[in-house]
Amino acid sequence: MSLLTVKQLTKSYQAGKTAINNLSFELNKGECLGLVGESGCGKSTLARCLLHIEPINSGSIYFKNEAIERLSERQLHPYRKKIQIVFQNPSAALNPKLKIKDSLIDPYAQYSKELNLSHFSYTSKEAFVKQLLEAVELPPSLADQYPHELSGGQRQRVTIARAISIEPELIVLDEPTASLDVISQGAVLTLLTELREVLNLSYLFISHDLAAVRQISQRIMVMKDGKLVDQFNRDHLFAEERHPYTKELISFF
């Protein structure tokens, strides 16, 4: 079943640069779809367009068969609780003036009246935060700390905990391991895989790191200069019919 469908999406800027050029794809419920490409190819622009952080020029975006690309901010409210995003830089994503527990509770506070949680239960703020921290394998003692007191890997786990706190259906992961050391990268990828299975999540995993995309994704798309140039199941990565650009990326890992 298709959860997210993108049809002929195009995004251009006033300077004349086309960041996304007639892009179409589907993301199925329960899967991790990887999107790989070099920096500047349009991956992060796509993420911002899907989240309505940036407007598109043309094309369609469907979430569970509902066209959402032209919805007003008020009409988007139910959609925003169903799709969350984890950015590359957790330090920029977390308010430095808020304790971890306050950052984690914020999404729930925004949508509490509309939520019917099945994996987490809200009996108190403290208990809810404890559940979230444990879900991302962090000690509850971190709840009273500030972002600058945590390591980079811990901060990224907090942003993941915040993303899953309202049990969305889809999480867009925009280079979530790019700012981490190699050991932390592997641990976060393993965590994300486990969370997807336990919480029945779907992911769009965006990265320039083909090895990371291959580890976590069932299907892979390759993007170059704003266009999708290749799509395939993970097991077909080394097939002869791969696009020359895909083969070039393969040569680097």
UniProtKB/TrEMBL annotation:
Residues 4-250 form the ABC transporter domain. CDD domains: ABC_NikE_OppD_transporters (cd03257). InterPro entries: AAA+_ATPase, ABC_transp_ATP-bind, ABC_transporter-like_ATP-bd, ABC_transporter-like_CS, P-loop_NTPase. Pfam families: ABC_tran. Gene3D superfamilies: P-loop containing nucleotide triphosphate hydrolases. Coiled coil: none annotated. One of its GO terms (molecular function) is ATP binding. Keywords: ATP-binding, Nucleotide-binding, Transport. The keyword GTP-binding does not apply. The keyword Zinc-finger does not apply. This is Dipeptide/oligopeptide/nickel ABC transporter ATP-binding protein. It comes from Metabacillus rhizolycopersici.
